[in-house]
Design brief:
235 residues, alpha/beta, five-stranded parallel sheet, four-stranded antiparallel sheet, 43% helix, binds calcium ion
Amino acid sequence: MSNNKYKILIVEDESNIRSFMATNLEANGYQVLTAATCQQGLLVFTSHLPDVVVLDLGLPDRDGLEFIKTVRRSSMTPIIVLSARTDEADKVSALDLGANDYMTKPFGTAELSARVRVALRSNRYASVAVASGGRFILHDMVIDYDRRQVTIKNEVIRLTQTEYNILALLSAHVGKVMTYSAIIRAIWGSADDGSVKKLQVNMANIRKKLGSKPGDNMYIVNELGVGYRMCDENL
Ligand code: CA
């Protein structure tokens, strides 16, 4: 299938990384737009309305986090942030501000294409399924939003209300990394000192009930120190 209709905006000041990504994405049939500063990125974003943004957080004029804040006031376009291995806190801030995903430098072409595909898919797919009271299907697992029921190989998985809510939330953002605090806010409304622990306990129970073994990423990926992601078959 041609990717011609999809526009990817790359905001990155390092020209070698920018052209590495542009070349690769163009070879995959995407239309690529580039910007080297935050301000330029925002201008291109507003004038071209790309389908996905790949955003470096360390930009010369303004922090990449400012880009996310500005864009999220008016748009849910998926944003994949690029960060150095040392920028753990920045990564979490970016996700909390509404970025969908992150890649740690250095990354390869296979990872770049996979993450762009996931971002495009999550944009089109998830909210529609929830809004229509439809079903979410991943491998042999089916989440039926109308009946609030989860099955694996047609066997009903007995989840508590909270466990179901967490699973449904992650599925509604398939492919997107959800931080601990974003999940906690959505499920319990507010956070206290024990919230992350409470979430981890619930998640351990969910994974056990889904039959996942430790380290097994078939349904849910544990993004260590950051949060969780509902798997996408592309990743
Ligand atoms: Ca940079």
